[in-house]
Structures are given as C-alpha cells and as structure tokens.
Amino acid sequence: QVQVQESGGGPVQAGGSLRLSCVVSGSSFCNGGRWYRQAPGKEREFVSGIDYADKTEYADFVKGRFIISQDSAKNIMYLQMNSLTPDDTATYYCTRCAKWGQGTQVTVSP
C-alpha cells in the first residue's frame, strides 16, 4: 500500500528557511509530485510541482523563494522554502502516486 508522509514543518521567523520532505513508502516507482498548502479559512492552493524528468513549476507567489527537488533513488521529494513571510503560514501537503500525505504545519512569525 502506497503511503505518503511529509515532514520538516515547524515554527520559523520571517526571513527564515525550512526544508520540507515528502517520503513515499510502498512503491518504488513514484517519481514526481506536487506540493500544496492550505491556510486557515482558505482553500488549498498549488505551490510547486516536479515531474519524472525534473521539470519544475511554481506558483507565482513562491517563485524565486522556494525550490522543489527530488531524490529518486530515495523516493523523497523536497521543498526548500526561503525568505519565508507570515503569509506562508499554512499546512503543507504533498501528493505523489495519486496519494496525499497528512500535511506538515509551517508557522511563520513576524
């Protein structure tokens, strides 16, 4: 059974950085994936994606600040988040192999 698990969230001050990880278990063929986020009272929104060929895409509000990558050998997808602002506060979810993780909370203080 394929399972997806995010990690790496936590509290951080504005201007700081965090690196989120998304691990897939139960499947050895799961390249690519997407990150989404959902802030309280708001809809879930797309943040970034990467495909099997490492082609990346980003939402406009994270371009130049966030970097998505993957280690296919380890089945891990990353989201390096830099220059964080309070507006980035949200629960971050990854989706891979048509499965969603439970999310990891990111809280950015002023």
Total number of helices: 0
How many β-strands, per DSSP? 11
Biggest sheet statistics: 7 strands, mixed
Low-confidence stretches: none
Rg estimate, integer Å = 13 Å
Question: What's the quaternary structure here?
Answer: single chain
Distance between the termini: 41 Å
Task: Give the percentage of residues in beta strands.
Answer: over 45%
Mean pLDDT: 95
Structural summary, described in words:
- It is a single chain.
- With 110 residues, the protein is an all-beta fold.
- The protein is 0% helix and 54% strand.
- It contains no helices and 11 strands.
- Strands 2, 4, 5, 6, 9, 10 and 11 form a 7-stranded mixed β-sheet that branches.
- It is globular.
- The relative contact order is 0.33.
- The model has no long low-confidence stretch (mean pLDDT 95).
Structure described in brief:
The protein is mainly β and about 110 residues long. The chain is built from no helices and 11 strands. The mean pLDDT is about 95.
Key terms for this structure?
mainly beta, 7-stranded mixed beta sheet, 4-stranded antiparallel beta sheet
List the helices and strands and how they pair.
Layout: E1 3-7, E2 10-13, E3 18-25, E4 33-38, E5 45-50, E6 56-58, E7 66-71, E8 76-81, E9 90-96, E10 99-100, E11 104-109
Parallel strand pairs: 2-11
Antiparallel strand pairs: 1-3, 3-8, 4-5, 4-9, 5-6, 7-8, 9-10, 9-11
